[in-house]
Amino acid sequence: MHSFDPVNFRGQFAFFQHNPGWVYLDNAATMHKPNVVVDAMAMFYQRHNSNVHRGAHTLSQHATRAFEQARDDIAAFINASAREQIIFCSGATAALNQIAFGLMHTVLKAGDRVLITALEHHANIVPWQIHCSKYGVILDIVPLTADYKVDQQAFTELLALKPKVVSFSHISNVLGHIQPVTQMVSQAKAAGALTVIDGAQGIVHDKVDVQSLDPDFYVWSGHKLYGPTGIGVLYGKTAALELLTPLFGGGEMISEVNFSHSLFNILPFRLEAGTPDIAGAIGLAAACNWLQSINNEQMKSYKSMLLKQFFAGLNKIDGLDILSSPVHNAGIVALNVQGEHPADVAELLNQQTVAVRGGQHCAMPFFSLLGLAGAVRFSFAPYNTEADVATSLHALTQAVEILTA
Ligand SMILES: Cc1ncc(COP(=O)(O)O)c(C=O)c1O
């Protein structure tokens, strides 16, 4: 394992050589891709491109081996107990839709309950809403505390209603707060529920060991973890995956088709209809293998140091409402300039080549609860620098001065 060297780390991203003037603090939306990922995908397309599983020819067999090796690598990355527990899909949104749809036909019947929290991304709200209303399933929402954490007391009380499924994010994409997921999973399991973790932000911050965390499902998007867009992972325990009705039918996911009925294939193929994103899977595995070669603890403490510096700088700027807490924070800070629209602040930062996101961050119900139009979100990654922190603080100071002049 290599020790984490911030300069060497950043040097592995061609993006920064092509965009030297930019301070990129929109990592919660998507991360940049290290050269190893881009190279792995280019290599596949240039040398090995073929469809998988179905070709009789040698090239197809090579492509199949590379694709299935990617599954093995990703299973190892999250310590899944079996390779068929890794279902490739287009991302966290696709995975959550597959789970919500897939359980309605098997586990969830009219009158049953599903529990989510008030801090969820739309991807962990809307799929449940669509299917719960259609099948008469009740969707309960865990409220938040005054400091925007999931209210654990209310969570315990709502578990007493015996939800069949409990689904929550590992880390809030708006605030960066790390949820007490280990405790929440064990409480939900004790209440008899299936557990779903939206790990879109969680997998980025720390190593995830699905056997020790022990949820039934853990989902994530490749592009937020140094991988390509268009690929993601639906991890499930084998028994939990067997409960899912496939959302998509087509090639690959069947073992026999005739006009009266079809027989489905075994896992993982049963949930992977059609030609998969072969290069995407190979790129994502390259990202996971590369990450595993770097000291994670050092990388995390470097990011915490940047976050600490950023919070210290924010405290010197008057007129801010900071929504995020520095405690148990994965490197995301949401804030507002008092009385100003977040889009205006984000645009003033953009004009100073600081890339952040301003808006509701796919969490409209959260902002409705707060009565806010949204927030400006600064999200950090280990390739950011102390100079990025200083530049963004300076740009924010300028924006406040312009807006409040
Ligand atoms: C917590 C969380 N869940 C789900 C998603 C959806 O991810 P994707 O758009 O890659 O499917 C995101 C993306 O921002 C997210 O942050």
From TrEMBL:
<dbReference type="InterPro" id="IPR010970">
    <property type="entry name" value="Cys_dSase_SufS"/>
</dbReference>
<keyword id="KW-0663">Pyridoxal phosphate</keyword>
<dbReference type="GO" id="GO:0006534">
    <property type="term" value="P:cysteine metabolic process"/>
</dbReference>
<keyword id="KW-0456">Lyase</keyword>
<dbReference type="GO" id="GO:0016829">
    <property type="term" value="F:lyase activity"/>
</dbReference>
<dbReference type="InterPro" id="IPR000192">
    <property type="entry name" value="Aminotrans_V_dom"/>
</dbReference>
<keyword id="KW-0808">Transferase</keyword>
<protein>
    <recommendedName>
        <fullName>cysteine desulfurase</fullName>
        <ecNumber>2.8.1.7</ecNumber>
    </recommendedName>
</protein>
<dbReference type="GO" id="GO:0030170">
    <property type="term" value="F:pyridoxal phosphate binding"/>
</dbReference>
<dbReference type="InterPro" id="IPR015424">
    <property type="entry name" value="PyrdxlP-dep_Trfase"/>
</dbReference>
<dbReference type="Pfam" id="PF00266">
    <property type="entry name" value="Aminotran_5"/>
</dbReference>
<feature type="domain" description="Aminotransferase class V">
    <location>
        <begin position="23"/>
        <end position="389"/>
    </location>
</feature>
<dbReference type="GO" id="GO:0031071">
    <property type="term" value="F:cysteine desulfurase activity"/>
</dbReference>
<dbReference type="InterPro" id="IPR015422">
    <property type="entry name" value="PyrdxlP-dep_Trfase_small"/>
</dbReference>
<dbReference type="InterPro" id="IPR015421">
    <property type="entry name" value="PyrdxlP-dep_Trfase_major"/>
</dbReference>
<comment type="similarity">
    <text>Belongs to the class-V pyridoxal-phosphate-dependent aminotransferase family. Csd subfamily.</text>
</comment>
